[in-house]
Every structure is written in C-alpha cells, then in structure tokens.
Amino acid sequence: MSDAGGTSFDVVVIGAGAVGENAAGYAAQAGLSVAMVEAELVGGECSYWACMPSKALLRTGHAVAAVRRLPGTTATFDPQAVLDRRDTFTHDWDDASQVEWAEGAGITLLRGHARITGEKEVTVDGGDVLTARHAVVVCTGSTPVTPPVEGIDTVRTWTSRDATSAKEVPARLGVLGGGVVGCELAQAYQRLGSQVVLVQHGSSLLASMEPFAGERVAAALREEGVDLRLDASLDSVAPADDAVTMSVGGEEITVDALLVATGRRPHTADVGLDAVGLEPGTTLEVDDAGRVQGVDGGWLFAAGDVTGRAPLTHQGKYAARIVGTVIGAVAAGEPVDPAPWSEHAATADHVAVPQVVFTDPEVASVGRTEAQAREAGLDIRVVDIPIAVGGSSLQADGYDGAARMIVDEARGVLVGVTFVGQDVAEMVHAATVAVVGEVPLHRLWHAVPAYPTMSEVWLRLLEAYRGP
User: Fold this and answer.
1) pLDDT per residue over 152-167, tens digit each?
2) Domains of the chain: which residue ranges?
3) What is the UniProt remark on how the cofactor binds and its stoichiometry (predicted)?
C-alpha cells in the first residue's frame, strides 16, 4: 500500500496499456506497492485500437474466404455485423473490466498525463506528485508518424485508430504504406466493401520480412481487387468536398478516407525525459533487464515500443514481465542475473521475435530472415518448400503456401522460420520453441507431427534439409 499521503509507492508505472499492465502486475506479484498512471483507456492501444479490433475486422472475411475455397460451399457476410462484433472486443471503448483487473491486483490506478519531474518522481497533470522507492517504468508505447506530403495538413486523414474504430465502411479508401498495418487494413476494408488503393513508396510489401512473403501478400491483394501501387509516391493531397484527392505519380485519385500507415515512433516527447538528462521524443535505450541507459542510479526502466527493440505487443509484454521481475528482485535485495535466457534478461528480443501478419495468406515468422542471418555473419543454409501436405489439402482446395527455414550450419540449429499461407499463424509457436530452445535438428527429427495436420510441413522441411 502507499503511505498515508497516498503519493509514495515502491513502483510507479507510466502507461497502462498491455505492457504497463504486465510491468505493474509482476511488480505487484513480487509484493511491491504499485501506482499505474494512464491518460487514456486502461488496456491501451492493443485492446482498443490495434491488435484486437483490427483482427476482428479481418476475421470474418478470412473465414468466408476459407469457406469459399471448399467445393460446394457458399458464404456471404454483413459488413455492419463485422463492425458490431468488433465493438464487442473493445467493449465499446469502455475500460471498466481492465480497471477491475488492476484494482483486483492491488494496483493503484491514477487517471491523467504523467511526466517524470525528478529522480524517482512523477507528476500527474501538474497535480499529484508520486515518488517511487525503487523504480519508475515508462510504458507509453508509440505514436503514428505523418510523412511530409504536400497538403497533408489540409485534409483529415485516418490513423490506424480511425481505421479500427470506424463506424462506417468508406466506399473508397486510400492507404499510404505497405507495412503490416497498411496490408492488414487494406485487405480488411476491401473485403468489407471499400475500393482500396494502396500506395507504397518501395518496391515490395512487408519489406522487413522475407521477400516471398510480401510477394504473396501483394498477389492476394491484387487478386481481390486492391489497386496496388508499388514504387509509387504520394506527391500531394487536397480536400475535395468531403473526400480527399491524392496525386500519385501525376494521377489524381479521389478517396473518401485516407489511412496513413507509414510507421510509428516512440511516444516519449512529453514524459519528462529532459528531467533526467535525456532528449524528449527519442527512443529509450535499455539493457536486457529493461534499465534505461544514461540515467544514474538504475531506477528508470522502460518496456515496449518506447525502447525500439521489438515493437510488438507480445514482445513488449515479455519485456515488461522481465522488468517487473527484475524490480522485485532488486527490492528484495536479491541478485539480478544478466546471463542470456535468465529470468532477468530479455534475450529473445535479439534472436527470437515471433510475428504474424493477419492477412490472407497469413505470414508467420520467428527469428532471422535470410538477409539478417547473412548480415550477422552466420554460415547458413536456406530450405524452401511449398506447404503441400495432407493437412493443407484438407484445409483448402488448391492450398498455396510456402515455408522457409534458416539453419545455422555451425551449430545445427534453426535461427529463422517463415510460413506463408492460409491459417499458418498457429504454427509459429512451434517454430519459436525450436529457435529459443536451440533444438538440434537431429533431435527435431524426432518431433513427429500429427497426421493429417499442416504441422507435417516440419517433416517436409527436415526431409528437404537432410536430402535424399
């Protein structure tokens, strides 16, 4: 509990999204008093504007497409019902259930904007001044980046928040950016009834992933009617009554809404970094225990997107669990083990980050791509096969998928795996276990996949590696 004045705690967490909740929860489980400060909704971006609502928007279209790939079947859906179902996942943007969890965990929740104002000191909206006996943890996430496009400040654009919370489906949707957000929401809205044009400055989609992943997603979007413009630039935008006119390579395209999905940056501009000698708006560099570098005393921690390490909800939660555990150990006078793969080191951030792009086909990957492995100087072998097993043929007629594994030849272990195809997302955890566990391939050979499932692709990958 806090002291009698209610302003002194063992730990103060700034940001009550999924990452902040985990840091606060693990610190509380260690027996520490915890205050958590949130300016918006408890549960944060993932719960209300990102992971959950975006996947709800995608799921029905994917299910209908999967049904249509089976003979003798037909399926349709009501776009409004999809929006209504989306609202159930966001609880109509009401965070009462998340607040109830925090209170049940013994966490003191404060509403308002928090700034660091001194060593182990946090001020909330210029009012309450909180002091932390052991640690302050920054978990404020990230914010969208707006590119320097002529006229962009003269029109109302969508961020991902607008796209995932929209009450109506626009007849025409422009999407700027071919990363995960751009691809997922382009497909979601095309299937919901929009005519979508996606403009990507680069020559490929999903540029940070294996090239074949972006190629297959691009082919799927085109097949569904998305007007995909690669190697294109959005030169300018201008208002057109209630619409927006985009100038793309000299061609004018009018859309009813324009989604800007050109990346995000750490949300650190207004959390008081200057009070501890750091530059506002910058990425918070942390060690594997989550301690912010450049701040004396080791009392300032950070986790999630603000660190720039692995800007994914699940990785942020992983780092937050480690931060909470480390703070608990320090408070108890116990040693912190910095060794890789200890409970005090976020080692997976470096070598075993899983990710799923929930397009159709899905892209599921973990670890290094071929390019990243070669850049790291590893002696690798790349194994590519189609996903063509009994399980995939049952999943859909004409199933078309691909799998790649990257093998570190010196150690005989996997360092990267990528699957592309319908319903591959649930296979990525097996790959993650193999990469994290550094399971030798000769041992992995004895992990027999159940028949007939798509997991049989593991047997085919290993057979291809071993050769005839």
Assistant:
1) 999 999 999 999 999 9
2) 8-43+95-143+265-348, 152-262, 361-466
3) Binds 1 FAD per subunit.
